[in-house]
Design a protein that fits this description.
The structure is a single chain. The protein is an alpha/beta fold and 325 residues long. The chain folds into 2 domains: 197 residues, NAD(P)-binding Rossmann-like Domain (Rossmann fold); 107 residues, UDP-galactose 4-epimerase, domain 1. Helices cover 38% and strands 16% of the residues. It has 11 helices and 13 strands. The strands form 4 sheets. The chain has a 7-stranded parallel beta sheet with strand order 3-2-1-4-5-6-11, sandwiched between helices. Strands 7-10 form a two-stranded parallel sheet. Strands 8-13 form a two-stranded parallel sheet. α1 crosses α6 and α3 runs parallel beside α4.
Length: 325
């Protein structure tokens, strides 16, 4: 197939592209490198068509959708703190950008679109494991804008018959995850701390649990969704388990310091993946212990990542406590 991937230089994108190329697909990537790294595509650059463009601004990049079969829409701004500080940037990237991708897909008659939504739309769920019909409770602009993007995808599927599936991803981790940006994803923080010999900064008592899902499992879910004879579906993608942060730091091995619990965060994330099993024939394969081993084998990837400590985290998350308390 001819596959177009937005945000292909990002964490999930670079793994997906490598997989698609190995299976013989032709791949076009659109990325503005605001969060992704061109180096992530170093093994693929001579095999793909790369377009540097901002999808929130309509332009010549839209013509790249001509003759495309599948679209995987990964491009987005992530992280809680910057979304609180600059909500309009997140709206432009995650909502307007999605609208522009959908319009280009509609114009050129693509065959299928996969949208990567966020489990943050559930906020603090009432039930665990959490099913797709759980109430929506967006707690910060990132969560809201990813949910609005999903609603656009489903609306275009209904009105314009663009075959689409939205995958709500839970706590994705793995090699090549982001190393920069305002204080964010736990694995990037912990791996940089381990490399520098600093203690792991564990939020609260560390007993909160997360549905840590390895990136290659997510890539397999995307591929299954592309091939499945379904459309208009929302499907959770998770590890089929939930793990405490204390379990994670035990696997990583190192000193720990505990920092204040943050408002607006659930004590647990845990996807009910019954629909993924039934509709996609998919189930995760990588356990947390195996995933952590893979990360530690590639730990030097995080050698230039910012190293956070109690004080710098307190400064970086000041707005978090200010607005979400």
């Amino acid at each position: 197939m001819n596959v177009l991937v937005t945000g292909g230089s990002g964490f999930i994108g670079c793994h997906l592209i490598k997989n698609l190329l190995n299976e013989g697909h032709a791949v076009t990537v659109i990325d503005n490198f605001s969060t992704g790294r061109k180096e992530n595509l170093s093994d693929s650059l001579n095999k793909i068509k790369l377009i540097e463009a901002d999808i929130s601004i309509r332009g010549e990049w839209c013509k790249a959708f001509k003759n495309i079969d599948w679209v995987v829409h990964l491009a987005a701004l992530a992280d809680i703190v910057p979304s609180i500080e600059k909500p309009s940037d997140y709206f432009e990237a995650n909502v307007t950008g999605t609208l522009n991708v959908l319009d280009a897909s509609r114009k050129y008659g693509i065959k299928k679109l996969i949208y990567t939504a966020s489990s943050s739309c559930y906020g603090i769920p009432d039930n665990y494991p959490t099913t797709e019909d759980q109430k929506i409770d967006t707690r910060y602009p990132y969560a809201l804008t990813k949910y609005l993007g999903e609603q656009l995808v489903l609306h275009y599927e209904k009105v314009y018959k663009i075959e689409s599936v939205s995958l709500r991803l839970f706590n994705v981790y793995g090699t090549k995850s982001r190393t920069s940006g305002t204080y964010g994803a736990v694995f990037g923080v912990f791996l940089a701390q381990k490399l520098s010999g600093n203690p792991f900064t564990v939020v609260g008592d560390g007993k909160q649990t997360r549905d840590f899902t390895y990136v290659t499992d997510v890539v397999e879910a995307i591929k299954k969704a592309l091939l499945a004879k379904i459309s208009g579906e929302i499907i959770n993608i998770g590890s089929d388990n939930t793990y405490t942060v204390n379990e994670l730091v035990k696997l990583l091995k190192g000193e720990v310091v505990y920092i204040p619990k943050r408002p607006g965060e659930p004590d647990c994330t845990w996807a009910d993946i019954t629909k993924a099993k039934e509709l996609l024939g998919w189930r995760p394969k990588v356990s947390l212990s195996d995933g952590v081993k893979l990360l530690l084998d590639d730990i030097n990837y995080w050698k230039d990542a910012p190293v956070w400590d109690e004080r710098s985290i307190s400064v970086a998350t000041k707005r978090w406590f200010e607005y979400l308390s």
